[in-house]
Every structure is written in C-alpha cells, then in structure tokens.
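note to self: dont lose this again. the chain is below, predicted strucutre after it. 194 aa total, dont forget to put it in the shared folder this time
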Amino acid sequence: MLKIVERVARFMAVIGGLVLSALVVLTCVSVLGRTLNTIAHSDALVGLSQGLADALVASGVGPVTGDFEILEAGVAFAIFAFLPICQLYGSHATVDIFTNALSRKANKVIAAFWEVVLTAVILLITWRLFVGLQSKYAYGDTTFLLQFPVWWAYGVSFAGACVASLVGVYCAIARVAELVTGRKFMPYSEEAVH
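---
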C-alpha cells in the first residue's frame, strides 16, 4: 500500500512542480512585457528615438492579460499538489524544542496525534472546497479579465485536495498502527532533529 501512496504523492508533486514552473515563466514574461511597455511609453525613449518607441508600442508588448487570475488558480492547485508528498514524508514545519527531551515513545504518541489532527483538517478543507466548487459552478462565476469559470480552479484544487485527503488518511492510520504495533508503515518513521 505504501508504494501506491508514494507513487501517487510523487506524481502529484511532479504535476505541481510543472504547474509552478509554468507560473514562474508566465510571471517573468508578464513582468518583462510590462517593463517593455513602460519603457516604450517613457519620455526618455521617446526623446531618444521616437521611431523605436512607436515600434515597441505598435508591437503590442505588455503584460500577459489575466496573469493574476492564472497565478491565483495555479498556485492554489500547486499547494494541494504538494500537500500529499509533504504529508507522506512528514515534511511539514515542526518545532521540536521541547519534544527532543521526551522519550521516543512519547514522540511517537505526539506524532500520531498530530497526524490524525492534520488529516482531520485536510478532510475539512477538502469538504469545504467541494462546497465552494458546487457554489461557484451553480452561480457560474467567472474571472474578471479572462472570463474563465472560477469553478475550474476549484475543481483542480479539489482534485489535489482529494489526493491529499487519501494520503492523509493513510498516514494517520499508519502512524497509529506504528504506535500500536511497533512496525514501520511510513517512509520515515523517525522524526527529524532540527
């Protein structure tokens, strides 16, 4: 079961990474276009070469239309795409100032407790995301500039949240099983020392 969960979590992380990389490229292109547009309209370039300024303006160079809308949807998906791998490998931020002094058994109890709590929170977020998806779909909300349906962003985020929920449930069950049986069910069962 661990192999399947690990493959799904890795697949989601790769997809999230590709989306995030595309968003970085989009942002760079948009900033470059915005900068070139500003330069084309600047008094300095007009004074230096009216023809070059006119050519830049005529080329239509400028920011990518709707870049903020695309970024908003893409980053939301990327967050949910990275959540399963973070959950599986226990890569969430932790503060171990006091727990390092506790026994190994006490740390396992704490890890199992927080794994269950985090899974419950992920399940809650997934449920509320589904409710939001239904609402956006029913009302037909669209983005301001691109006019694409808002529910699309909710839909891809919900898909990522569903995978995160499944991985979270596996992790919670595995942590509790490790606590009860003493066997290893997680890729990294020992907490990292920070």
